[in-house]
């Protein structure tokens, strides 16, 4: 029997979950391990996995509906660009602490500052657990990408170097509701960014539409 095709009268929409996270962590690096390999075992990643997340200032059950209360208060409201504010509370359990951990490493990477993370979930009956997973995955991926850019693109001559993390930017794709995420350095000019995204997207993009979502104060320290 052939499958039945059902057409939707309205296009699908997505909820945007925005969150600012204060980051202060140190990652040991060896000569043979990548940042992705190290982040899987870091305690900070484990704390993030057990973190409590507030959505619009409220803690909700993971299996519950993300928009349940909004439906009751504003049943007629509907938007294709709905934004939910989130806060991540890292839950460190003092009873699970062990003695000091000693690791042999070639160098270490310290990250300090406020990092912006953003998750997307379908607006069709979104669950809290889907939003939680989207935020945590985006935060880990964002830190991983930026640290890889720093480690692969920098040659540190001193024993300790201090530099800002690449800034996160979202670029709207003309003619669609999709945004492209990328990372830029503070010394890149408007012309540099225009040429880069023109080559990447093969179409003109307006610099005025770029969304720089972070202040230029997050930094990383790379010590030998």
UniProtKB/TrEMBL annotation:
GO terms for cellular component: endomembrane system; membrane. One of its GO terms (biological process) is intracellular protein localization. InterPro entries: ODR-4-like (IPR029454). It comes from the Eukaryota. Pfam families: ODR4-like (PF14778). The keyword ATP-binding does not apply. The keyword Ion transport does not apply. It is found in: Membrane. Keywords: Membrane, Transmembrane, Transmembrane helix. Belongs to the ODR-4 family. May play a role in the trafficking of a subset of G-protein coupled receptors. This is Protein odr-4 homolog.
């Amino acid at each position: 029997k052939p499958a039945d095709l059902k057409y939707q009268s309205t296009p699908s929409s997505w909820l945007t979950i925005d969150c600012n996270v204060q980051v202060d962590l140190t990652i040991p690096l060896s000569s043979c391990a990548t940042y992705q390999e190290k982040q899987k075992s870091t305690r900070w990643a484990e704390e993030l996995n057990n973190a409590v997340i507030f959505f619009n200032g409220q803690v909700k059950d993971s299996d519950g509906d993300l928009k349940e209360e909004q439906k009751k208060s504003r049943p007629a409201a509907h938007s294709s660009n709905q934004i939910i504010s989130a806060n991540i509370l890292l839950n460190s359990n003092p009873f699970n602490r062990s003695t000091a951990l000693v690791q042999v490493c070639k160098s270490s990477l310290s990250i300090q500052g406020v990092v912006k993370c953003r998750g997307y979930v379908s607006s069709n009956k979104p669950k809290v657990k889907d939003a939680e997973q989207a935020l945590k995955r985006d935060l880990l991926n964002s830190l991983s990408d930026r640290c890889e850019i720093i480690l692969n693109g920098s040659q540190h001559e001193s024993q300790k170097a201090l530099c800002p993390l690449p800034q996160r930017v979202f670029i709207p794709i003309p003619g669609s509701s999709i945004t492209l995420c990328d990372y830029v350095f503070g010394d890149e000019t408007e012309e540099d960014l225009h040429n880069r995204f023109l080559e990447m997207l093969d179409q003109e993009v307006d610099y005025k539409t770029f969304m720089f979502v972070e202040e230029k104060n997050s930094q990383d320290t790379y010590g030998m």
